[in-house]
Write a structure and sequence with these properties.
By secondary structure, the chain is of the alpha+beta class. It has 21 helices and 6 strands. It is 49% helix and 7% strand.
Length: 457
């Protein structure tokens, strides 16, 4: 049921954002926000030397903001773009069941850059991250599946609005300025999903682009630039443009706003690939642990949610034979084959050599799907496969949740291990990784944002 809109949504959100206070955050929400920042920082380091990050750096300007893992400073917009691109580039960043969206890779780079630009204390970084991530996740619930259906990337378009909100909180903008920032951000939102055609790089930059746009929107609003109050619900507004096939459920955005924090249910990925592939990888690994070999398998049929098909399953012949390692991250058959054969699907699995391995391609070719009309996607990410073996046996494996989320959460020790592993993958020494971990976990202290300079290695 969708409530009647009598006050512009941006004004309701602005009232909430202007009232941001640390005292309004539970210990659980503060801890989740800390984990989000830790995960993002490690991912920035892991991708620092990747060609797509270097290409963004080549288009970036100098300044005094930190791009994590890079020795020199950048202007704040470039720093946010670099950090966001690196954090989201390997699709190893946090996700949200109900979206799906990736909040940390957008909001953390924006909040870090604005705090460095304005010399803001750690509590502003905490508030900007928590409130921005909460808005991003809540906005993803308004028109589930419809933004993807329209050909846009939800993290990109929704993320721009959330980054503007985060920066508004950090800067302490008043209600009118915050409304204007959201209105301005609506015209900056962008990000199509045509990267799927050939596995090219544009999705990788979407989080960073949203982050830098949010900074710009908030600063322009502070300077007096005007934006439409009806940016969300207007007849030419955000959801009309990006999700025309579905009536918006604004009650899911506004109900219990500030009382129930949905970011407490954010999921941290165990695998470096598309969100909805993750439970299927777990199922494939579970099948291999039953003593089944790839040669034993005649076919694997997966029950899937209809909303995942156009990104992760079709065209099926293309998903069986992706052209690039990045394209392989959005091929459930390849991801399952990697998991089955190697027992994992981390950063080291998505290489040219591994995705073209005849064993991987051969097993992936045996994987197909059927649509399950009762699949709970996008509210819940599950996995279900049936493997037919040469001896006639049929093995069935189900997983009713995504690991790393509320039903099987990662501990702080797990996330710290992931951080160190990512830093080492990015070329840092163990000692550098340990120092960086301590810096990142202390960023919410009063002088925390100033310590970002220690991450310029």
């Amino acid at each position: 049921m969708t409530q009647e809109i009598t006050t512009p949504i941006s004004e309701t959100l602005a009232d909430w954002l202007v009232g941001a206070e640390v005292s309004k955050l539970s210990a659980e929400t503060i801890e989740m926000t800390r984990r989000i920042v830790l995960d993002v920082a490690g991912l920035c380091i892991s991708a620092r030397n990747e060609p797509y990050v270097q290409a963004v750096i080549a288009a970036s300007g100098p300044g005094d903001a930190t791009a994590i893992g890079h020795a020199r400073g950048f202007d704040p917009f470039s720093a946010a773009l670099i950090n966001g691109t690196a954090a989201h580039g390997e699709d190893y960043d946090d996700t949200f069941e109900g979206g799906p969206v990736h909040s940390g890779a957008v909001v953390v780079p924006a909040a870090m850059a604005i705090c460095e630009l304005e010399n803001l204390p750690g509590d502003r970084l905490l508030l900007a991250t928590a409130y921005g991530a909460e808005l991003l996740c809540r906005l993803s619930l308004v028109t589930p599946k419809a933004i993807h259906k329209a050909g846009f990337h939800p993290t990109a378009v929704i993320g721009t609005m959330a980054a503007a909100a985060a920066c508004s909180v950090a800067l302490g903008l008043n209600k009118k300025q915050t409304v204007d920032a959201l209105g301005i951000a609506g015209s900056m939102a962008s990000g199509i999903i045509e990267y799927l055609a050939e596995g090219t790089w544009t999705k990788r930059m979407h989080a960073g682009w949203a982050a830098q746009s949010g900074i710009r929107a908030a600063l322009m609003a502070r300077g007096g630039f005007l934006g439409p109050r009806t940016v969300f619900e207007g007849s030419h507004g955000f959801f009309h443009a990006f999700a025309p096939s579905r009536k918006p459920a604004y009650d899911l955005l506004l109900n219990e706003l500030g009382q129930r924090w949905v970011i407490d249910d954010i999921v941290f990925k165990p695998y470096a690939c598309g969100t909805m592939t993750q439970p299927f990888i777990d199922c494939a690994i579970a099948l291999s642990k039953q003593g089944v070999s790839a040669d034993d398998i005649v076919s694997i049929q997966c029950d899937v949610g209809e909303g995942t098909v156009h990104r992760l399953w079709e065209p099926l012949n293309v998903k069986h034979n992706p052209k690039t390692p990045y394209a392989a991250k959005f091929s459930t058959p390849i991801c399952m084959a990697l998991g089955f054969l190697e027992g994992k699907a981390g950063l080291g699995q998505f290489t040219e050599e591994s995705i073209h391995d005849p064993r991987v391609r051969g097993l992936a070719a045996k994987v197909s799907y059927v649509i399950n009309p009762d699949d709970p996607y996008p509210d819940q990410f599950i996995g279900h496969l049936r493997a037919t073996l040469k001896n006639g046996d049929v093995r069935e494996v189900k997983q009713g949740y995504m690991r790393g989320g509320k039903k099987a959460p990662m501990s702080i020790a797990d996330l710290e291990t992931k951080f160190v592993d990512n830093a080492i993958y990015g070329g840092w020494r163990d000692a550098d990784a340990d120092v960086a971990r301590n810096v990142v976990t202390g960023l919410f202290a009063s002088d925390g944002p100033k310590q970002l300079r220690q991450l310029r290695i």
